[in-house]
Specification:
With about 500 residues, the protein is an alpha/beta fold. Among the domains are: about 105-300, Spore Coat Polysaccharide Biosynthesis Protein SpsA, Chain A, CATH 3.90.550.50; about 355-500, no CATH class. Helices cover about 25% and strands about 20% of the residues. It has helices at about 10-35, 45-50, 115-125, 165-170, 175-190, 205-215, 230-235, 255-270, 275-285, 305-310, 335-350, 385-390; strands at about 60-65, 70-75, 105-110, 135-140, 160, 195-200, 205, 225, 250, 290-295, 295-300, 305, 320, 355-360, 365-370, 375-380, 395, 425-435, 440-445, 465-470, 480-490, 490-500. The longest helix has 24 residues, at about 10-35. It starts with 10 loop residues before the first helix and ends in a 9-residue tail after the last strand. Pfam families: DUF604 (PF04646).
């Protein structure tokens, strides 16, 4: 007799088994709803196949699918999140990895330049590029001449920009070539990509700081990071909503992928625009993403002597400096190429402090020291508060003629011949690590101030300043560092940087 063949002696057992089976069934249903991402059972396959589909599954998400013809939105499963059908853009979901902290290997640089300018601009890029470590390409408008060959191993590998003449049918395609560099960079290198960084060939980038900042953002979401122009009317004429691309802008991997997918459609849509950054911003805005501005990205839309600007940097890690061809060499008695390499000597020791402003006082002499780490020291012959010194001295000139202020996106101080207002200027000379694992930086006087002393304690005697800073990098910048003047002896002054005390006032 079969085990399920019940009689009067086993009726109670059968009922118990039936009730038990029904309880298990309802428990299964409840657990399936509570944990929808668990694999489904094969116990009831026929029931699932015949059940009517009346709604979007809770396991589906709405993601943008951008075709070559027109943008569309589709619901896709979490099990198969790839959406592109462009053979030049990989569908491999491994292009966006999430299982480790962001590092330099997750960044890809696309630098757009010209063959003519590269002859003198390559010194800028080679000052920060790390061969066989930094990922990316330089896109030239034509093949390099014999003077540039064989290609320097210290330079990024080069590519020739795509020919867009038949595509857009415009006489001047400079702006579109720059924007199209986004597609060409992504096409060349996107495996394990988290951030696409675009920039020009006359910029220097501070890679450690860039990685540190980007690591704070979720690279799996849509981000467009960039900087404004320092010249207020550049933002007004073009857009306050755009990142000025010469100094660099950063696209998270999902945004870079979506932008590359639709970029040619977008270039056709905005073919009337003559500015590359404005075109890029417009294409990104149409995807639904707005600019997140960062203070450490500097377009350097200014002319002449930029030392005042660089000596009072915002309280934010330095990420890039652009337009080195448009300002004077940033160090006295050096050309632009040598000045760039000189600044990077300090940056190689500690990018977290580069250009960060630290202010301290020597009250016995009634002096104030304002340090721009790795670049300059300003010595004033009276006690001055940080609230005043945080504003750059306007040693630089306007980017374009503009008769009435405001000229800049920040407040400035005008240069002064008042001996109590004008600083003695010292510039970075050398750097080394001490046996105690401190970093020892020396600054030498640029030139005599040639003003009467502010008081009886003239600082004209000081010719060298040394600054001692911790070897440890700064990871938090919600508050600046402080310093102590530990010794003034003869023609030298020694300063030690430290963390500020809880209630310390820098005034």
């Amino acid at each position: 007799m079969a085990s399920f063949n019940c009689n009067i002696d086993f009726g109670g057992v059968c009922k118990t088994q039936l009730i038990f089976c029904m309880v298990l069934y309802f428990v299964f249903i409840v657990l399936s709803n509570l944990y929808p991402s668990c694999p489904s059972s094969d116990f009831f396959p026929s029931f699932w196949k015949t059940a009517p589909d009346i709604s979007i599954s809770s396991r589906s998400v709405v993601s943008p699918t951008i075709s070559n013809d027109s943008p569309t939105i589709s619901a896709i499963s979490n099990d198969s999140p790839t959406i592109t059908n462009d053979p030049t853009i990989s569908n491999d979901s491994s292009t966006i990895s999430t299982d480790s902290p962001t590092n330099l290997s997750h960044l890809v640089f696309g630098l757009v330049g010209s063959e003519l300018a590269w002859h003198h601009r390559k010194a800028y890029i080679e000052s920060w590029w790390r061969p066989n470590i930094t990922r990316g390409f330089l896109f030239l408008d034509k093949e390099p001449t014999a003077e540039l060959l064989p290609w320097s191993r210290a330079s990024p590998p080069y590519r020739i920009s795509d020919d867009l003449t038949t595509f857009l049918k415009k006489p001047d395609l400079t702006a579109q070539r720059i924007v199209h560099g986004i597609v060409e960079t992504f096409r060349e290198e996107h495996e394990n990509l988290r951030w696409l960084v675009m920039g020009d060939d006359d910029s220097i980038f501070f890679l450690d700081n860039i990685v540190e900042i980007l690591a704070k953002f979720d690279h799996t979401k849509y981000y467009y990071l960039g900087g404004h122009s320092e010249f207020i009317f550049s933002n007004y004429w073009f857009s306050f909503s755009q990142g000025f691309g010469g100094a660099g802008f950063m696209l998270s991997a999902p945004l870079a992928k979506a932008l590359a997918k639709d970029l040619e459609n977008c270039l056709s849509r905005y073919a009337h625009l003559e500015a590359a950054d404005q075109s890029t911003m417009s294409c990104i805005a149409d995807i639904g993403v707005s600019l997140t501005p960062l203070q450490g990205i500097h377009q350097m839309d200014m002319r002449g002597d930029a030392s005042g600007f660089l000596s009072s940097h915002p309280q934010f890690p330095l990420m890039s400096l652009h337009h080195f061809d448009m300002v004077e060499p940033i160090f006295p008695s050096m050309d632009r190429a040598k000045s760039t390499r000189h600044l990077m000597k300090a940056a190689k020791f500690d990018q977290s402090r580069i250009l960060q402003q630290t202010v301290c006082h020597h009250r016995k002499s009634n002096w104030t020291f304002s340090i721009s780490w790795g670049y300059s020291v300003h010595l004033y012959e009276r006690i001055m508060p940080r609230s005043y010194l945080q504003y750059p001295i306007e040693t630089f000139e306007k980017w374009l003629p503009n008769p009435t202020p405001p000229h800049y996106m920040f407040n400035t101080r005008l240069p002064s011949n008042d001996s109590c207002e004008a600083p003695h200027l010292f510039f970075f000379k050398s750097i080394k690590k001490t046996p105690k694992n401190d970093v020892f930086t020396s600054f030498s006087r640029a030139w005599p101030r040639r003003l009467l002393p502010c008081s009886s304690n003239s600082a004209e005697i000081i010719t060298k300043i040394t600054v001692i800073s911790p070897e440890t990098k700064r990871t938090e910048i919600e508050r600046c560092e402080c310093c102590d003047v530990i010794r003034v002896h003869g023609s030298k002054a020694d300063i030690k940087i430290r963390e500020c005390m809880t209630d310390e006032i820098i005034a």
